[in-house]
Amino acid sequence: MINPTSPSISPSVLIVDDNQDIRELVSQLLEAEGYSASSAVDGEDMWQIMSKKKPDIILLDVMLPGTDGFELCRQLCADQNMPPVIMLTAKDEEIDRVVGLELGADDYIVKPFGRRELIARIKAVLRRVKSGHVQTGKGVYRFAGMSFKPSQMEIFDATGTSTPLSTSETQLLLTFVQNPRIPLSRDRLLDLTKGRNSTPFDRSIDSHVSRLRRKLGDDGKKPEIIKTSWGTGYLFTCDVETL
Fold it and tell me: Which keywords annotate this record (predicted)?
């Protein structure tokens, strides 16, 4: 089995779900694919497990006893040192998926899901995290009075005030600054940010662009930095200086 993140250590996945059957089934599926799986029944259990060892990725259910998955996602994604998060939800409403992505989740899966979809999404997120670390280096990109430091996963405004970025936001902005003034389709953005093995059911680009616009101070209704290229996708309009 090829390991997506390390040639010698199996990627570890933490499953946070109060349904015992789901925890056991997902654990079995992951272990059959060569992953190391652990599980938690709620947020308190999750933090206790993570205090001992952080996983490579978290599968986080929305409907949890006590603190719900949305709030846990917000807490996790506020710390750039936390692992990426895939939300698990039984709700098939678009607003629920959007909320998770807006809070910083890297992806979402609607229950019930199949084994192939689950593994594909986990691999895509782990691949994106890995490629982000490889490609970012120590470079600094300047545009529109801001500085972007991919290695730190932060952007800085003219006053030096920093805004943290999630893994997905960092990789997406890196793609834009490396391809300024070039219209990029949603499929192309998926290729560049998630790799050629991105799946056709992964349509989270729009939500990630929306969230990135806000962090850049770009008006979502009349964006000037990341413009919607009608019929194509998105266009990063700024001149970029690389240091």
Answer: DNA-binding, Phosphoprotein, Transcription, Transcription regulation, Two-component regulatory system
DSSP label of 178: T
Q: Strand ranges (DSSP E) for 78-189?
A: 85-89, 107-110, 141-143, 146-149, 154-156, 162-164, 184-185
In Å, how far are 77, 105, 181, 186 from 102, measured between CA atoms?
10, 7, 26, 18
Distance CA 40, CA 14 (A): 7
CA distance 121 to 129: 12
Please name each of the domains of the chain with its CATH number. Answer: 12-133 (3.40.50.2300), 137-242 (1.10.10.10)
Q: Which two tokens stand for residue 214?
A: 């806000």
pLDDT per residue of the chain (243 residues) written in tens, 0 to 9: 434 444 446 899 999 999 999 999 999 999 999 999 999 999 999 999 999 999 999 999 999 999 999 999 989 987 777 898 998 887 666 666 667 766 778 888 888 888 888 998 898 788 767 655 434 445 789 999 999 998 888 999 989 999 998 877 888 898 899 889 888 888 778 766 755 344 444 457 888 898 899 999 998 888 999 999 877 789 999 999 988
Q: For residues 219 and 2, what is the distance between their CA atoms, to the nearest angstrom?
A: 43
